[in-house]
Specification:
This protein is about 30% helix and about 20% strand. The chain folds into two domains: about 270 residues, 3-Layer(aba) Sandwich (Rossmann fold); about 30 residues, no CATH class. A hairpin with a 5-residue loop joins β6 and β7. The protein is of the alpha/beta class. Strands 1, 2, 3, 4, 5, 8, 9, 10, 11 and 12 form a ten-stranded mixed β-sheet that branches. The protein has a two-stranded antiparallel ribbon with strand order 6-7. The protein binds thiamine diphosphate, iron/sulfur cluster and magnesium ion. The site of iron/sulfur cluster has 11 residues, from loops.
């Protein structure tokens, strides 16, 4: 399903829709919605220039609640659609939302493939350790041996660490934040959107209905900000990146009495569209999706040459 922001804004419009939110009261998803809306307000990006995609899950319903162009896609495909949108129209600010099941279960191959491309967009991972929408089964991030109240035996699988996998796959901005720390989350989202390249924001997002272990009470005393403890994630060239990456990986592995949050790596390097520009001379200069069409959808300009350049 695709919807577009209502009427063109004469003045900035609210970034919230009137769609009724059906998340459980107290769900960490509300904090992510609030932080995203505040981030868009602060960046003053026109509603019609933002595209937000979601997969399937409680978290993936967020496109319905944000007044921008939205795509509610297939399970595990949020990042796929987001990359396609950005490549078709690099002018847009593209954000992809996904649950830990959506993004790291069924969507895990796309997560890794996206890291290898480095398309300029922001990926928000709602990390609650469970499949909330389907009644709390263990998700790929649930720690080994844990048994939240929604499952009948302890988790027999080892978890996927989104930060570690993001760093290993090549995401050029990797961060963690927390849905009950709106200020940190809003600022992290702004930094992620300003980053030129693929940004991952792993958000600790308690599911108050099914996960009675990874709760607010669990995270509040444990989360600490690595940047406040002196870590500088900036890598401005390949040499700095190679030097910082192992340290960022080591930090990403920390889990226990202290859980790190903040930006782990912020590497400025060539994006996928910059590489495409070298192959397709007009790419990025001309906005192909804005080419005029007639009422039957036929292009009014001759685009034969353009199509040939993609073959
Ligand atoms: C192809 C397919 N397989 C399975 C499902 C069932 N399903 C719907 S949502 C979901 C998992 C959602 O978990 P997560 O992505 O963590 O989102 P949350 O609800 O926790 O926010 C599953 C398995 C589906 N909709 N489509
Ligand atoms: S089931 Fe969990 S993740 Fe889904 S809305 Fe309720 S609290 Fe949030
Ligand atoms: Mg989940």
């Amino acid at each position: 399903m695709i919807s577009t922001a209502a009427t063109p804004p004469a003045k900035p419009q609210s970034y919230r829709t009137n769609v009724e939110i059906d998340w459980c009261p107290g769900c960490g998803d509300f904090g992510i919605l609030n932080a995203l809306v505040l981030a868009l307000q602060e960046m003053k990006i026109p509603n019609e220039d933002v595209v937000l995609t979601g997969g399937i899950g409680c978290s993936s319903k967020i496109p319905h609640y944000v007044n921008v162009n939205t795509l509610h896609t297939l399970h595990g495909r949020s990042l796929v659609q987001a990359q396609a949108v950005k490549m078709a129209n690099p002018r847009l600010e593209v954000i992809s939302a996904s649950g830990d099941g959506d993004g790291l279960g069924i969507g895990s191959a796309h997560f890794v493939a996206a890291g290898r491309r480095n398309v300029d967009l922001t990926y928000i991972l709602f990390n609650n350790g469970v499949y909330g929408l389907t009644k709390g089964q263990a998700s790929p991030t649930l720690p080994y041996g844990e048994m939240p109240k929604s499952i009948e035996t302890e988790n027999l699988k080892f978890p996927v660490n989104p930060l570690f996998l993001g760093l290993a796959s090549g995401f050029t901005f990797v961060a963690r934040s927390y849905s009950y720390n709106i200020k940190h989350l809003k600022e992290t989202l702004i930094r992620a959107m300003k980053h030129r390249g693929l940004a991952l924001v792993d958000v600790m997002q308690p599911c108050v209905t099914y996960n009675n272990i990874n709760t607010k009470e669990f995270y509040d005393p444990r989360l600490y900000d690595i940047e406040k403890e002196g870590w500088n994630p900036a890598a401005n060239n390949e040499e700095e990146y190679k030097q910082k990456l192992p340290q960022a990986v080591a930090k990403s592995m920390e889990w226990g009495d202290r859980i790190p949050m903040g930006v782990f790596i912020d590497y400025q390097t060539e994006t996928y569209d910059q590489k495409l520009q070298k192959l397709v001379p007009d790419y990025g200069k001309k906005n192909y999706v804005m080419e005029p069409i007639d009422s039957a959808g036929k292009p009014l300009n001759d685009i034969t040459k353009l199509m040939e350049s993609f073959c």
